Amino acid sequence: MGDPAMTLGPEELQKIGDYVRLHLPDWMQGMPAAGRNNDIIERAVRVEEELKAQRELMQVRFESLQELMETRFEAMNRRFESLQELMETRFEAVDRRFEVVDKHFNSLQWTMGLGFTLIAALMGIFNFF
After folding, report:
1. Contact 111, 117 (CB under 8 A)
2. Which terminus of the chain is more exposed, N or C, with fewer CB under 10 A?
3. pLDDT in tens, 89-108
4. Cα end-to-end distance, the chain, whole Å
């Protein structure tokens, strides 16, 4: 490259070193701290990781809630089906009762009809009028 413009002796280097040591803390306060930037970046990374963990936890909770709701709905469906079957058996029993009562009324109607016919025939035969 080339020869330096001036050569410094140990005494000049000592003076420069003392001057830099004396003023370096003042100069560093005016500069942005690289350590602070690293701290902020690390903090941001931790916050992002925590948010990711919370999202995953929320997803797990939503899935477990969904499964719980599905099991409850299935239990309700089974209960409604059993109630439906019970109602069907009761309606069939009521239908059988109505059929029995209907047969009873039919036989009663035929008996009364035959009785009135027999009485009318006997009255006609024996001339009660």
Report:
1. no
2. N
3. 999 999 999 999 999 999 99
4. 161
Residues 6+ positions from 16 with CB-CB distance below 8 Å: 8
Maximal C-alpha separation, the chain: 169
113, 119, 125, 129 alpha-carbon torsion, rounded to 10°? -120
C-alpha span between 15 and 23 (Å, rounded): 12
The pTM for the full model equals 0.45
Place of tokens 């009762």: 97
For residue range 12-57, list pLDDT tens digits in order: 888 888 898 888 888 777 676 666 678 888 899 999 999 999 999 9
Vertex 38, ends 37 and 41: CA angle to 5°? 85
User: Residue ranges of the domains in the chain?
Assistant: 12-126
